[in-house]
Each structure stands twice: as structure tokens, then as C-alpha cells.
Write a structure and sequence with these properties.
The chain is α/β, with parallel strands linked by helices. It has 10 helices and 7 strands. Helices cover 50% and strands 11% of the residues. Bound molecules: guanosine-5'-diphosphate and magnesium ion.
Amino acid sequence: MLNQLDQTPLFDWRSIQIPTILTADEILDKVFKKAARKTEPGPTRIQSASDNINVTLKKFELSFPSLNNLHPFYRELADLTVGIDKMKKSLGALKWCRHSVLRVSRESIEKIRNVPGSKEQIEVLRGSYGRMSSLVHQISKDLVFLDSARRTLKAIPSVDLNKTIVVIAGFPNVGKSQLVKILSTGKPAVASYPFTTKKILLGHMELGRLGMILIDTPGLLDRPLEKRNPIEKQAIYAMEHLANLIIFLLDPSEECGFTMEQQESLMAELQQGFSRIPQWIMENKSDILERDSPNLSISCTEHKGIDTIKERLVEFVAVREKEVIRSRLF
Ligand SMILES: Nc1nc2c(ncn2[C@@H]2O[C@H](COP(=O)(O)OP(=O)(O)O)[C@@H](O)[C@H]2O)c(=O)[nH]1
Ligand SMILES: [Mg+2]
């Protein structure tokens, strides 16, 4: 039954490989050069040019992720960074162009077969090239937009969504990165996340059958939400689709530069904003100050409480993986 867990996820972000989207001139240059290799300036050239435009544009269209199957985390980020409606519109324009080019080629081939001499044939060929060029130029902006969308989408970090994902929250300097480093098997990787200039830290932990990912998110869950613009807020809330657990780290020593009042107020805000996700509160830097509190007290520098976190995570992963199996069975 555990093999259920090995199923490929509905959507694997890492499998997206969008090729460079050529500009209108690049496409035309490529297809007309190829068509010119056909011996006579007759119907075969028209056919070759229109077939190649069709194939090239179709390849671009199909290489974009199917937006309906996109995991909600990626869909939200794709919408924020690229704009899903804009992307759909541009992909639609490519399709329109393909169909129009094919229509032009059908008409021109019909015509070229019925003209008497080679002079007239060349004229028809020129005319059909002109119409195809104009059609491809009409989608110039869409091609440029799709190529920039490709680059933006590529920058969204890939996370294996089968794994249990733990997001570490808390003000800067409370010890989030330290905690990720201590818990990770191996060196954490760095990645970018839209709307934060800082790099996020991704640590891996070999737990359960699928493993766990720990994410330290500088610039995201580390200051009050009221200071964010709507787009930043949405980028933050996209994490809701990602996180299975949030660990909120407090620093009662206040060595981080933020008072407990500030830290607790941010915590309350996140508890409310992410109410659907389990949250654990931990107090770090117990080597400096340990206070009487119901929260787990830890010290990243002295490795205090780390084994307890690991034990709790083992249990959490076991429960979550069981739920994953159950949800896949029904
Ligand atoms: N005394 C003490 N310092 C710590 C502890 N954990 C982290 N620090 C220090 O706090 C500073 C900020 O840590 P960092 O992990 O970068 O915090 P982040 O900004 O929340 O990721 C660093 O200088 C750490 O060495 C701890 O348990 N005790
Ligand atoms: Mg950090």
C-alpha cells in the first residue's frame, strides 16, 4: 500500500521545459530559409513554410504548462509574476496565427497550381510569403511576452510537493537559517522566490518515505503583513498552498533586535493568516535566556531541544504520509 506514495504528483513543476520563444523575425527567417531549399518556387515551398510556422508555434504552445493542472502554489505564483490571463491570451494568439497561416497556404497552393507560367508562380509565392509574414508579425508582442514569461516561470523554485514541507517563520535574526542548517541532511540549497530579493534556504531531511523540506524564507514571513503591498501579500499567501507545517521561531532574549511584543504580534498575525496550517511555536537562544513558557525551548548554538524537534517531525511526517495515502485511495 505504501507504493501509493510513489505515484507521480499531478503536476511536476521540474518537468516543464519551455524552449526559447523565437521572435517573429527569427521564426520567419528560419522557415523561409528552410523552404528555399526546396527545388522550385512552387507549392512545395509554400507548404514547407506554412508547415514549419505551424510546427514551431505549436511547439511553443504545448511547452507551456497546462494551467488547469497546475498545483495551486505554482498557479498563484504564475498568476502573480506572469499573469495567467495574459499568458492564455498570448497562447491563443499563437493558435490563431497557426490557423491563419494554414488557411493562407491552402489558398495560395490552390492558386499557384492554376497559374500558367513560372513568373506568375513566383508572384503567388511572394504574395503568400507576404501574408504569412504579416500574420506572424501580428503576434510579435505575444512571442516577446511569452519568452519573458518563460524566463520568469523558470525562476520560481521547484519544490517536490510530495514531500512534507515545513516553513520556518519569525523575525530576522531569531535563528531560522541556523535551525534549517542544523536539521538538514547535507547543505541546504538556495533559491529565489518572487518578490523577495533575498535567497530562500531549502533544507532536506530524510524522514518517512518521501522526505521533508525545510524552508527559511527571508523577506517573507519575517515582518508584519500591514507593511506589504497587495502583490507581496499574495506571494506570501501562496505559501499556504505549499506549507504542511509552519514553525514559528521566537527569540525571547531579544538579541535579534525585536521585542517579544513585536514578535508575538507577528506570530498572532500569521496564526490568523495561515489558520489552516498547523503551527508550532519554539523559543530559540535558550543558552542566553530561558523563560517559563509552554513553548518548546531550544538553542541552535548548543543543540538543545533539537532531538525533541526531530522526534516531533518524525511523528508529523508519519501522520501526514498516512493522510496522503488515504487521500489517494479515495
Ligand atoms: N546565542 C545564540 N545565538 C543564536 C542561536 N541561533 C542562532 N543564533 C545567532 O543568531 C544570529 C541570526 O541567526 P540566523 O539563523 O541567521 O537568523 P535568521 O535571520 O532568522 O535566519 C546568528 O548570529 C546566529 O549565530 C542560538 O540558539 N543561540
Ligand atoms: Mg535566515
